[in-house]
Amino acid sequence: MTCHGPSDVVSCWGMETDRWVRIQTLTESAKALPHAERGAFLDEACDDAELRTLIAEMLEAGESGALGLEAKLLTSDPADLGKEDGPEPAVSVESGLSIGSYEVGRRLGRGGMADVYLAYERADPDRHPVALKLLRFGKGGADRLPRFQRELEILSRLDHPAIATVLDSGTAADGRPFMVMHYVEGHTLLDFVVQRRSTAAERLQLFVSVCQTVQFAHDRGVIHRDLKLSNVLVREDGTPVLLDFGIGKLMRTFASEPPAGFVTPAGVRLLTPANAAPEQVSGQPQTVQTDVYGLGLILYELVAGRPALDPKGVNWLEWERRVLEVEPAAPSSVPAAPIRMEPGLRPRTLDELDGIVLKALRKEPAERHQSARALADAVARCLSELSPA
């Protein structure tokens, strides 16, 4: 069963989640039992062999080889801490198979809770490509369903040409929910500007467009919370498209009641460590200024050619300290920064741009630009002065 159209996609999909909720409930019940008793429990509780196999795989994946938290904090690269622990069960989708009314093609990518496939609606004679996002079983599955449901709710609010919006949703034969979105063909923002050898003005104009899209989401009560270069694709015509609202948040004044069972476990912070704002790292409230910080990180790398703070070679505890305490260098001071390679730029313009970037990256949210629009306006003013001396 599938649901068509953004207006009813959330409510229709919500009626199809009973099987997944049952899987999660039985998995949690089995985890509470001694190992020796789990097999008998599953034999009695599961009314079909497929259901029993799926739950057994989830239990196995949840216990295989995960490092203890303390060891991870001391040894793991920050980028690795944003990933699910342990291997996923061998539940894959082969090219040519069907999910709902869609024929699945190659896998396009893998996120923290779902895989994304190129797909085609079987009834479409022109075979227009779409992106099908399929929830993954495995460790952490207990909180994936409500996160997936929340992403659907968020995307249903955001009908915008620069956002990969949802077209359809449903439940696969094995009980996993999926959503179907516009397929965006293009390059990540960083790859696009590097391959095109974009000028400083072109980079800043792309950035202003991204800010405008983020402001559109904010105006509709949505905070992205995971803004980074890889979550912006640029089409061949130069239009940047914002992706992946998987850890997005509805502002309290706009938010509906959380879906049933939507509880973030104590101590769990939904973030991409290498791109997290100080308030995300420290577990403080997150607002539109959290996205301003994410935009600041994007702008920094566009003009400096490297991240504001480099996570390579440090453990999580050291990375956390840097995010909370270390101020990044001015972008124009970075050797070989693209902005320094621009011929004849006025020193005053470089200073202004440095100030804009560093303000967006202030540790205290209240000291940053107060909106994505304000940041875009500041960059646009700088852009108007970006001409050779």
Structural overview:
The protein has 389 residues and is α+β, with helices and mostly antiparallel strands. It has 2 domains: 1-77 and 87-183, Phosphorylase Kinase, domain 1; 187-384, Transferase(Phosphotransferase), domain 1, CATH 1.10.510.10. Helix content is 40%, strand content 14%. The protein contains 14 helices and 12 strands. Strands 1-6-7-5-4-3-2 form a 7-stranded antiparallel sheet. Strands 8-10-11 form a 3-stranded antiparallel sheet. The longest helix is centred in the middle third of the chain and has 20 residues, at 200-219. The radius of gyration is 22 Å and the shape is globular. It starts with a strand and ends in a 5-residue tail after the last helix. The model is unreliable at 4-17, 63-76, 84-91 and 253-268 (pLDDT under 50).
Short account of what is shown:
Helix content is 40%, strand content 14%.
CATH C-level category of the largest domain: Mainly Alpha
Percent strand? 5-15%
Number of strand segments = 12
The CATH topology of the largest domain turns out to be Transferase(Phosphotransferase), domain 1
Q: Oligomer, anyone?
A: single chain
Distance between the termini: 62 Å
C-alpha-based Rg, rounded: 22 Å
Q: Mind describing the biggest β-sheet?
A: 7 strands, antiparallel
What is the string of helix and strand elements?
EHHHHHEEEEHEEEHHEEEEHHHHHH
Structural class: alpha+beta
